[in-house]
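PROTEIN DESIGN WORKSHEET
SECTION A - STRUCTURE
LENGTH: 426
TOKENS:
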């Protein structure tokens, strides 16, 4: 009982990771993959997750071993590394939050039957998220995410089990086939891999969440416990990604029906996947689960971006104040400033793109995909630089080998995407 109690106490950042990942990449992209191509892209889910694993794992590992975030690790590499990370973060955070907000508001409007336009509810959603985060920040996020992730996992796995029990055949040969020669298929593949399971930058968020969790629990957290927490969140997201692909493949792909590019029709189609497989009586449960999941993703990302930006700017500008209370107050002010900036920037994007959820999501995932090899390289450089000082950063051979294969994968597909774009402009 004492071991279980300690484990539940440590559990947290791994589920925050899952809360951030099980959102757009799963609810939108994974289900679209199944609906559009059946089970043909299952390999993408498996390979993308496995080859990104070493880079995500370094976030909690580095924080637990060194007591520092990856931001401080980047700073130790050279004066160029942290500004480069900050530049990529600022370049992607507005479009990312806008995409997540649009999906969240669309589901809310569909489920609750809200009046007025989607753009109005996008701003309302952003406002509510800001109030929640500023009232409690990490403590609120930690409690909400645990409940939401477990609820969606239960309903999704139940739906998949019932679908598979009724499925007589998986012969979908007469429907759309994925080919690399098809431009639309290729672009969807790249967008799908961009956020599968999540952007690499979440490894930085995870390092900060690990330190926050340690501060909140006021206890020493062992590396073994931190990695166990991470692995539960990581491998859980893979299972759920495959589950969402399965729902789309079994219930939509055979019919030839595609998901709508608009938020509200998409939400209605998504929820119907559950009601068709489990029963109409499950609508309130599924609707709440889907909405709660996107709210959890939105809270997680809206907390992470200003937190990371505030800490990165503080390190870049050398403004760490010696007195702990002054440093905390300074970071809190910067955190609030950047949260407001993100809300305004994302809101501006939403004013023009609320009718094209698909395009907004795809663009956000493209950005994540192109930044991935740079961020992965920074993570490996952090581990390499401090491997002699902290022996736990000298990871097992298989993990090092997987890191190298992952780097080839990330750089290779990024260069391929750039080449394709260049050819299109000719």
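SECTION B - SEQUENCE
RESIDUE ASSIGNMENT:
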């Amino acid at each position: 009982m004492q071991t279980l109690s300690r484990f539940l106490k440590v559990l947290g950042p791994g589920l925050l990771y899952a809360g951030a990942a099980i959102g757009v990449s799963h609810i939108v992209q994974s289900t679209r993959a199944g609906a559009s191509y059946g089970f043909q892209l299952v390999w993408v889910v498996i390979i993308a997750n496995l080859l990104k694993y070493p880079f995500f794992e370094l976030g909690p590992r580095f924080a637990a071993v060194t007591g520092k975030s990856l931001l401080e690790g980047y700073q130790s590499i050279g004066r160029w590394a942290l500004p480069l990370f900050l530049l990529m973060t600022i370049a992607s955070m507005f479009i990312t939050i806008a995409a997540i907000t649009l999906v969240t508001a669309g589901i809310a409007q569909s489920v609750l039957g809200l009046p007025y336009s989607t753009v109005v509810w996008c701003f309302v959603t952003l406002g509510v998220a800001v109030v929640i985060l500023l009232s409690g920040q990490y403590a609120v996020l930690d409690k909400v995410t645990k409940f939401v992730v477990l609820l969606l996992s239960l309903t999704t796995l139940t739906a998949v089990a019932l679908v598979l029990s009724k499925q007589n055949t998986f012969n979908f040969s007469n429907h759309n086939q994925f080919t690399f020669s098809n431009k639309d298929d290729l672009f969807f593949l790249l967008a799908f891999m961009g956020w599968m399971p999540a952007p690499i930058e979440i490894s930085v968020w995870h390092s900060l969440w690990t330190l926050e969790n340690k501060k909140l629990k006021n206890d020493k957290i062992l590396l073994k416990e931190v990695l166990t927490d991470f692995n539960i969140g990581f491998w859980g997201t893979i299972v759920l990604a495959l589950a969402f692909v399965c729902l789309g493949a079994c219930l939509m792909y055979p019919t030839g029906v595609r998901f709508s590019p608009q938020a509200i029709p998409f939400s209605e189609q998504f929820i119907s996947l559950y009601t068709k497989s489990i029963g109409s009586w499950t609508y309130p449960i599924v609707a709440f689960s889907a909405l709660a999941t996107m709210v959890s993703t939105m809270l997680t990302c809206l907390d992470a971006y200003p937190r990371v930006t505030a800490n990165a700017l503080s390190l870049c500008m050398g403004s760490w104040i010696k007195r702990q209370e002054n440093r905390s107050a300074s970071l809190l002010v910067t955190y609030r400033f950047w949260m407001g900036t993100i809300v305004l920037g994302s809101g501006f994007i939403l004013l023009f793109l609320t009718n094209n959820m698909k395009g907004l999501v795809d663009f956000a995932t493209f950005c994540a995909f192109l930044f991935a090899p740079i961020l992965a390289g920074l993570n490996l450089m952090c581990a390499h630089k401090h491997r002699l000082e902290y022996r736990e950063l000298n990871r097992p051979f298989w993990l090092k080998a997987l890191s190298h294969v992952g780097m080839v994968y990330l750089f290779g597909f990024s260069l391929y995407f750039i080449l394709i774009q260049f050819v299109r402009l000719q």
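SECTION C - NOTES
Residues 319-325 have pLDDT under 50 and may be disordered.
The CA atoms of residues 210 and 357 lie 32 Å apart.
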